[in-house]
Amino acid sequence: MISVFALPPPPPPPPLLPRHTMTLPLRRIVILGDPHISPDEHTLWRDEIIPDINSLAPDLVLCVGDLTGGHVMGTATGTTDALALLTSPGALTAPFASIIGNHDLQSHEFTTDPDAVRMMRTALGRPDTTAGFVIEHNTLAIIGLDNTRWRQNTVNKNEIVIDDAQLDWWRAQLTRLADNPILMIGHAPPIGSGLMVMPELHARVGNAHINQNHTPGAIQQIIWENPNILFWFSGHNHLGHHYRDSLSQRLGVHYVHTGTASRTYARDAHRHSRILDLAPDHLTLRTYDHDLRTIDPALDHTTPHSLPTLVAHRRQFHQRRFVPTDPVTMQQPSPTALRSPPGNRRFVFLSDPHIALPIPAVTRRVIAWCARQIRAIAPDHLILGGDIIQHPDADEITAFWTALGITDIPAHYLPGNKEGPAFTLPPLPAASTPPPALTRGCVQLIPHIFLLATSDQTEVNASLETLLTQLAQHPADQTPCLVFAHFHPEATNPELVARLATSPVSTTWICGHRHNPADYNNGNLRVVICAGLDALKVCHTRPELLCIDWPPATPDNPLSPPPAIAITRHAAPAQFVHSPAPIAGRFPIGIAFRGDAPTLLRTIIDEKIPALQFHYNHTRGEPTPDELQLIADYRRTIPGGHLSLHLPNFPHPLENPNPNLDDYTPWLHWAAAARLDDLTLHLPNAPASYLFSNDGGFLDTPWTRACLATCQNLATRALAMGAQISFENVYNKKDSPPGAETLGTRPWHLTHFIKNLRHRLAAVGHAPADLNRVGIIFDAGHAAADVHISQHHGIADWLHHIAPYLQLAHIHQVVTHPDGRSQNHQAITDLASGRINYTGLLATLADTMHAIARPPIPLLIEVRERDQALLSWRTLSTNK
Description:
By secondary structure, the chain is of the alpha/beta class. The protein contains 22 helices and 36 strands. It has an eight-stranded parallel sheet. It is globular and about 95 Å long.
């Protein structure tokens, strides 16, 4: 009984016999867990997962069931499409076989379980079978068991059941194959396997194990009676392979949990598949990481025995109790991990994730990658290079340490400017090594290696003075020195840097802070800057960490060259930064340059741009016939396109102490005639203290009342014309003390204002649907450029607070000049240059909106000139 597709045809698939014999070599098997292929992920499978599997050169691909996902889960169409994706010409190059999982039977288009099972077995190429499949090879036999019930299950419909008839068939196959090593494929693990289950989900509802409520002991009884069963592969949990109990050994059987390659269905963001490599004298179980797009050597498990030896070992304990002397754990070192050369000291340096609570999803993905990369590198020391947190907050560092989960490698914490000189480490979760040591001043970790605390200018200079004193006492043995710090040395006194550069001791200075990777020499000083782990700030790269191999001392030979310090950058794969949310890549990208209305409209019609914002300089009074015709052409050319008007800034109270609706009449008339979709307005250009009291409440002054009344009237007019109204954040152009901050520069300024405005509108009878069209337009550049507020609220933090009210966004690049000035509204020439990393921003925006079930919003590129707008639009449209 066979479910094998030989691909690509020709040759045609093997004939469907009661059993299938493979004559080709069987050296590598890839096992897929729970693919859950939905239409949304067809491109992912076609362009990435299938080519990656083929690159592994497997001889056979097996699947543990649950082929389909999304709205086609368990349907005949979904199953046919998924199998066509996997087995059509140009797809998988190895034979493919799959069993039936629980979700394969759940479609409501079938009224009985036999009908659903018949559909699945027909689609899998075995229409006349009444059980699973057998694949025989001269070294190994593979038996797959189908789940056959869903509607008939009484405890939980998603229980995995091997019915009595199939159990009898399984026993018969095992009797026939008594001399063959056996590999089993089942959708869920058997009771007693020791594999992890999900107590909050599967165990609670009764479907954690195969046959959990139907002859629950039968599976283990059969395994107990047949010592040639060596492996049981299962899935069902959608979890990664890095958990200790994702692999177990009981009674000589290796039970192997298999993750999922799906982005949508991976529960812990780890997308893993299994590889079983069969050699004459050993077996290696490996993990393919679909985000890293490579084999993760840190998760390798090798048994130094052949298949016949393992069977002989099981026969010694046939139907006898025994405890394995070497139980399998994932704590053993990987034989192919990226080990440090003998005698070297290896360090991992990471910095600048800027953790704020709640931790953004993109940051969690980056930290997860960071943790597994550290495991693969296997360093002797972990250096936390500062700005780990956004605020000097104990909860933030605890959250980071918990998310990283590296508790068995000595760690050293160098405070950065975010931590500040007064920062102290709180008690952290229990670890098998001492908690991270917080460095203050200049500390020699081991001979020739120094840790520098550089949280502010005073501490930087003091630490460097101490370092220079230490180096003056350094023996002239050509051994290089290694310095870890948060700041680059140029942040210190230039005289001190000159002394370091002219020191006879070769010094390598490893640091972060700048978010821009660099590696340069200044005399005898080498400076290596790590871009850090903040996906929204890293420049010219993706989030990265550094691996540093520090060599042993040079032999006593004055002619031998100084030993080299090897530094390797490890950048997070793009998949860890990109959002897996279904709305990712679906944000309409528009433009908002300062041109006249006809020029703007002709541009978006010619380029088919889905969103546009007009500027108040060119849109007031009565629209011209040409403008109205172009708007009609645009609506016809791009159905669903979005047109907005940026109204003039609300005046300062000293300029206009009595604002009213008449101030906006010319623009409102133009907007109504043009039938626009949105009106955008800055909050009043005034200190926040003009509107809010110290406790965040609204003041009751003549100007405050006039301001709120005018905004309410503007909102009423916008809603009456069928448009929404969006209020925009601004930024302080200089550091402002509390109370003097400009209104609209903190998230709560906008959220308080919108809540108040919605409350006022509701009080005069506006429906909830109208109230939801009064919201916020977020300007990412303004948030990044604020010299003061950006230290407290990063872009991800802004989005977290304002997401429920978010309707539009202004996007543009912010450039920092050598004198420290920031310049807004610059073109986006690539996704990772300037103050904002747009790969990270788009991922964060998708994660945030998806988390609250909000649809994509238009993103308006707000620059000054048409050429800049089109360059930015093409950059984002090509790469989003």
